[in-house]
Design goal:
By secondary structure, the protein is of the alpha/beta class. It contains six helices and 19 strands. The strands form five sheets. Strands 1, 2, 5, 6, 7, 8 and 19 form a seven-stranded mixed sheet that branches. It has a five-stranded parallel sheet with strand order 10-17-11-12-13, with helices on one face. The protein has a three-stranded antiparallel sheet with strand order 14-15-16, with no helix packed on it.
Length: 315
């Protein structure tokens, strides 16, 4: 029996673990397939406060983990197969460990960026391939950039990246875009955006020093083309990691956990959500860490018995 189990070890989960451990609640933190979350796949992070010279993603996550361990957090590696929030104590089934019981649970499993699955894509993550314009746009000042996608996210990313790149080429496999009209109009009014529609991405082309371009198939001419670029941003959406919850937690139509505004409370008292798994808008390391702090404090109040309201009907 644990006071609290934290599922996930990105910035949100690790921050929650630090606060819970300092409150002498001795949380158990379950590390999944990617300990440290998405930041372990990034290189230098320049926008996390407190590091004026930047810090490498894996180093930041390792430091946060050590900080949680210092105060008494316990870490175990495993894949959460399922949870049972129907009765208390809550039950968390972890592959290789069996069923663990807890008085409270914090869900910080994040959201996974969708990828195309084309050659050169995964090999060059952090070497010119990115899924976050806000995180990595700064590194492509005065360089050629490609954005792949046709939805609102792609329009927003392309428009944002024009602040840095010498040009931004937007690639979509269809002639039509899924983005809302207002987002399309904003992008089309931007003179730095080059439109490359009706083209199917085939391969991220790279050399020793990183990305050199994107090979595409022109569906109109049936010819392959090479779009020269120093950076390729994949903007086809994210998938929240919530399937293991089995519809026990209220989510939106995509799968992001719904929390009571201004808190990390889910529809089940004693179960909290933080980080990208409940964040459809910001998806930044610092905002995730902030909600991790909130989740720990909400959880502590719940365990103390001072959180007496059931907010399930308001979600």
């Amino acid at each position: 029996m644990y006071k609290t189990i934290v599922i996930g070890t990105g910035p949100a989960g690790l921050t929650a673990a630090i606060y819970l451990a300092r409150a002498s609640l001795n949380p158990l933190v379950i590390e999944g397939m990617q300990p440290g979350g998405q930041l372990t796949t990034t290189t230098e992070i320049e926008n996390f406060p407190g590091f004026p010279d930047g810090i490498m993603g894996p180093e930041l996550m390792d430091n946060m983990r050590k900080q949680a361990e210092r105060f008494g957090a316990e870490f175990k590696s495993g894949w959460v197969d399922q949870v049972d929030f129907s009765t208390r104590p809550f039950k968390v089934t972890v592959e290789g460990m069996g069923v663990l019981e807890a008085e409270s649970v914090i869900i910080s499993t994040g959201a996974s960026a969708k990828y195309l699955g084309i050659p050169g894509e995964q090999d060059n993550i952090g070497r010119g391939v990115s899924t976050c314009a806000t995180c990595d746009g700064f590194f492509f000042r005065n360089k050629k950039i490609v954005v792949i996608g046709g939805g609102d996210s792609a329009m927003e990313e392309a428009s944002f990246l024009t602040r840095f790149g010498s040009s931004v080429t937007l690639v979509n496999r269809r002639e039509e875009l899924r983005a809302s009209k207002i987002m399309q109009d904003r992008a089309r009014d931007n003179e730095k955006i080059i439109w490359s529609l009706n083209r199917t991405p085939l391969e991220v082309v790279a050399g020793d020093s990183g990305v050199k371009g994107l090979k595409v198939f022109n569906n109109a001419t049936n010819q392959e083309e090479l779009i020269e670029a120093d950076g390729v941003f994949v903007a086809i959406g994210h998938t929240p990691n919530t399937k293991f919850l089995g519809n026990q937690i209220t989510t939106d139509e995509v799968g992001y956990i719904t929390v009571r505004p201004g808190t990390t409370e889910t529809n089940i008292p004693g179960v909290f959500a933080c980080g990208d798994v409940q964040d459809v808008r910001y998806r930044q390391a610092i905002s995730a860490a902030g909600t991790g702090c909130m989740a720990a404090m909400d959880c502590e109040k719940y365990l103390e018995g001072s959180m007496v309201h059931d907010w399930s009907e308001t979600l």
